[in-house]
Amino acid sequence: MKLHGKTIVITGSSSGIGGEVARLARFEGARVIGIDRNDTLLTLDGFVKMDLGDPAVIDAAITALPDRIDGLVNAAGVPGTVNSDIVARVNYLGLRHLTEALVPRMLKGASIVNIASILGADWPHRLDAHKELAAAASFVLGKAWLDTNPVQQENCYQYFKEALIVWTKKRSLELFMQDNIRMNSVAPGPVFTPILGDFVSMLGQERVDRDSALVKRPALPDEIAGPIVFLLSDDARWIVGANLPIDGGIEAAYV
Ligand SMILES: NC(=O)c1ccc[n+]([C@@H]2O[C@H](COP(=O)([O-])OP(=O)(O)OC[C@H]3O[C@@H](n4cnc5c(N)ncnc54)[C@H](O)[C@@H]3O)[C@@H](O)[C@H]2O)c1
């Protein structure tokens, strides 16, 4: 069992990829605590209902989380069809806030996995902006930076997935050197989950048709969960700051 004896916190555990990671992590021996804004139907070792877009709610609710944590999977997310302010709060600012709040509870060797996306693949094109946002390290500072550097609704999902990849890389080095905590991200291509339809509305049929020609099919959530569980495990102990594509080859097809 790859995660025997580990305590893993998983956001977005009530649906899709987060739910599948929760199921597989328990199967691999972990004690799993789920977090979501929606109730869960899964068998978990604990569940905390919270809105990850509000730092005050996060601060109040994390008292219910364990004092000692071996892993965190940030799977909660919203598509770009919702308001860009909510995308910023849930997919980036709240994710960072929760992660930083839990770092002091993480044991040496702990692993954090952030779910980015193939849609964040253009991060090198806006690297300077993403580094500036990463340096605005708190929720409040990040929000202030975004107020002076507004992100368009049309590409907000892509923007904050790019920003997440860059923050993961920048912050992972400090976490590994200072606290022996590993942080990585994964970049799935399309996955059969309830938000897949939103991506079609978000990207438009033409882009979806173009990308569809590059892949055999969307992934099933368990095809994403396996690599995430690997990154949580000690087998991945020398993997730090990586952004792992799990996309059936789409990224390779862009070359
Ligand atoms: N499905 C895809 O094609 C795909 C592709 C690449 C990346 N992703 C990313 O994978 C992650 C998981 O998405 P999914 O496909 O499993 O979607 P999903 O909708 O099935 O699951 C997302 C979960 O996040 C929760 N959530 C959303 N907002 C929240 C909030 N404010 N507070 C607490 N919980 C909240 C939802 O309740 C839901 O349970 C997301 O970050 C998404 O951007 C998905």
What's this model, at a glance?
This protein has 255 residues and is an alpha/beta fold. It has helices spanning 16-27, 55-61, 84-102, 127-135, 139-148, 156-179, 196-203, 205-212, 221-232, 250-253, and strands at residues 7-11, 31-36, 46-49, 69-74, 106-115, 182-188, 243-246.
Could you list the spans in which at least 5 consecutive residues all have pLDDT below 50? none
Tell me the structural class: alpha/beta
Q: What overall geometry do the principal axes of the alpha carbons give?
A: globular
Question: Any guess at the CATH architecture?
Answer: 3-Layer(aba) Sandwich
Distance between the termini: 37 Å
Number of distinct beta strands: 7
Ligands in the model, by name, code or SMILES, are: nicotinamide-adenine-dinucleotide
CATH superfamily: NAD(P)-binding Rossmann-like Domain
Mean pLDDT: 96
Helical element count? 10
Level of helix content? 40-55%
Query: Mind telling me the CATH class?
Result: Alpha Beta
CATH-assigned fold name: Rossmann fold
Number of structurally distinct domains: 1
Strand count, sense and barrel status of the largest sheet are: 7 strands, parallel
Nearest-angstrom radius of gyration? 17 Å
Order of helices and strands: EHEEHEHEHHHEHHHEH
Widest sheet: strand order? 3-2-1-4-5-6-7
Strand content: 15-25%
